[in-house]
Structure to design on (204 residues):
């Protein structure tokens, strides 16, 4: 990529927008990046350190579309429920790509995530979580319900391609969470599901 000098930050991608704090999207609003690439400065290093800042905070009922998140991915996108994320690409996932932090539905439609050291999507609250028309390449797990949690998530996976996964597509410790999938293709993924029971996995 072409490089430009930006103030105290040094060299940045010429096609990118530099941010130094979380972009907060309010209830009922949609942030449309129109294809822009975002580079975070001073918000985290994209490692597995848990104390990084999110690039976006989507309040309950806020939406996000047409954005590329460049390295460092920091703590990705925080969702507080009833959010749609359309055509968002994580070029190099940081600690994780997206976290559900409020109850409700969260839908990821289109886009892709690359180079996740561990998790892509982290579910920390009960939710209906849908991933469709999405690619993940390089990850530990695509979807992880917070370890040890027992609340119920309902997960849908549709028209997705998952490549190069060291652990699995989805993992939960909850006996009430249910997962439904169709038209999912995997290659070089260790195992699809890490659930308490295979009876929690369904096609639709
Ligand atoms: C780990 C950690 C949780 C939470 C989560 C996250 O699972 O144990 O407390 O921080 O990551 O949301 O990234
Ligand atoms: Ca984490
Ligand atoms: Ca990464
Ligand atoms: Ca995280």
């Amino acid at each position: 990529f072409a490089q430009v000098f930006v103030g105290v930050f040094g060299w940045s991608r010429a096609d990118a927008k530099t941010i130094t704090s979380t972009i907060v999207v309010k209830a009922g609003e949609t942030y449309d990046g129109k294809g822009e690439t975002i580079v975070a400065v001073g918000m985290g290093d994209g490692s597995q350190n848990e104390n990084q800042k999110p690039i976006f905070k989507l309040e309950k009922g806020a939406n996000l579309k047409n954005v590329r998140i460049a390295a460092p991915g920091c703590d990705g996108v925080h969702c507080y429920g009833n959010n749609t994320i359309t055509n968002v690409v994580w070029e190099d996932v940081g600690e994780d790509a997206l976290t559900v932090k409020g109850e409700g539905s969260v839908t990821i439609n289109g886009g892709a995530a690359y180079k996740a050291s561990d998790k892509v999507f982290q579910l920390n609250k009960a939710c209906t979580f849908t991933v469709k028309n999405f690619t993940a390449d390089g990850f530990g797990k695509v979807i992880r319900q917070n370890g040890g949690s027992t609340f119920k998530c309902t997960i849908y996976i549709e028209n997705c391609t998952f490549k190069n996964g060291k652990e699995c597509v989805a993992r939960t410790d909850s006996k009430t969470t249910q997962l439904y999938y169709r038209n999912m293709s995997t290659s070089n993924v260790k195992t699809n599901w890490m659930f308490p029971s295979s009876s929690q996995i369904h096609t639709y």
